Amino acid sequence: MQLSRIKCKVSYDGGNYGGFQLQDNVMSIQQRIEEALQGIVKVPTRIYASGRTDAGVHARGQVFHFDTSLRIPEERWPLALNAQLPDDIVILEATHVPSQFHARFDAIEKTYRYCLWNRRLPDVFTRKYAWHIPYSLDIGLMREATRSLIGEQDFTSFCAARAVVKNKIRHVYEIEIHEESPGQIWLTFRGNGFLYNMVRIMVGTLIQVGSGKVAVERVQEILEAKDRRLAGMTAPPEGLFLWNVKYEHS
Amino acid sequence: MQLSRIKCKVSYDGGNYGGFQLQDNVMSIQQRIEEALQGIVKVPTRIYASGRTDAGVHARGQVFHFDTSLRIPEERWPLALNAQLPDDIVILEATHVPSQFHARFDAIEKTYRYCLWNRRLPDVFTRKYAWHIPYSLDIGLMREATRSLIGEQDFTSFCAARAVVKNKIRHVYEIEIHEESPGQIWLTFRGNGFLYNMVRIMVGTLIQVGSGKVAVERVQEILEAKDRRLAGMTAPPEGLFLWNVKYEHS
């Protein structure tokens, strides 16, 4: 029985899930996808993602892989899987990859985007996909503050205290902030990887800078202190999107 | 007891409601707003909107008015009402208006927008706010077809057969179609008023033109026949937004 490895790109609305990863007592994206897969291949099949996303966090381009002996042309996989999936999970692409490919270990770059709704009144149409900040923000100051967060550095101050990972050094390549339409501000983070809650803590801290509660220069001090308690709050999950995962040959 | 008349602009996600207007056995936008009002003014208070919207239809700028003896500075009304409303209904503006103002009878122009998601695969983030058309559309042909729908005409063919209104003449000022971002197509309809389901039937018919099922010239014939059965299907409600209502002095 010859196994072939399939790489898939998936988008999901995380609002109804306890996160990407399988867990007890709460529905996960992984469980839904594995159930859909089993409906097609008829045997339990594990999937391996580029990384987990937290409860309530969305994805435009999460990547996972799985092995199967079932022969289906690659362009048929998205349609077959989507027919089994609920409408808040959509498989966008499937490709055959060499059996050495691994969605997690081969990822060389990730892009996350965070959406803010910055008007006094809330917006009904983005209420599940943005963080509502009702006071005014100085985007210029926020952009200045991002400079301290670029580069290969120890991000202990921007990592959930309960994280178990030892190596807290990550390389952030770029942080971009722009107002896409009036009131809608997107923060884009590109790096070789991100620690647990890292993007959301960076967003929470940048909001403190933008609202004048924390001085721009303070961000560098927070980073150097390697102490989670000094950074801002963890921004809520509904504004966060895993936007893209990059591999050597993609 | 001096009554003052308040005009409000409201946005709502219609997905969880049986429509704007009060009805038995199903929750309506009107009921939610009247309940919120009663929570503030402590007496049952009727609201009068520019018109009803159907089950599942959204609004960016629906307008209604009500009378009250309660004295609140106009800029406080949105905050007070929003505090009582669920998060899928947001009051955007409130202004004091003369007691002759009527949200329905004084409206001189309405704008509706309809959103299409035109890609083979569905999009999780617009699934509740757009109609997914998985086949390709010729937008040029659709634009040509809109020419027959502009002007002051009898729109019987584009009105739900069960509508009771006698006068089916309406003036459509403008229909615009543009691709806002890849795959996301917006159709904008501006006119002095629209019949029951009229925008959704125009959209259903334009989709038939865009997909090549109906010739451009056929739209003129459908209009002249004054027969609902000849026009296209009623497009689903989730793509439709009451965008704006215009008054003489606004």
From TrEMBL, chains A, B:
InterPro entries: PsdUridine_synth_cat_dom_sf (IPR020103), PsdUridine_synth_TruA (IPR001406), PsdUridine_synth_TruA_a/b_dom (IPR020097), PsdUridine_synth_TruA_C (IPR020095), TruA/RsuA/RluB/E/F_N (IPR020094). It catalyses: uridine(38/39/40) in tRNA = pseudouridine(38/39/40) in tRNA. Its EC number is 5.4.99.12. The active site is at D54 (nucleophile). It is an enzyme of class 5 (isomerase). It holds the Pfam family PseudoU_synth_1. GO terms for biological process: tRNA pseudouridine synthesis. Substrate binds at Y112. One of its GO terms (molecular function) is tRNA pseudouridine(38-40) synthase activity. Keywords: Isomerase, tRNA processing. Residues 11-106, 145-248 form the Pseudouridine synthase I TruA alpha/beta domain. Belongs to the tRNA pseudouridine synthase TruA family. PANTHER family: PSEUDOURIDYLATE SYNTHASE, TRNA PSEUDOURIDINE SYNTHASE-LIKE 1. Formation of pseudouridine at positions 38, 39 and 40 in the anticodon stem and loop of transfer RNAs. Homodimer. This is tRNA pseudouridine synthase A. It comes from Ammoniphilus oxalaticus.
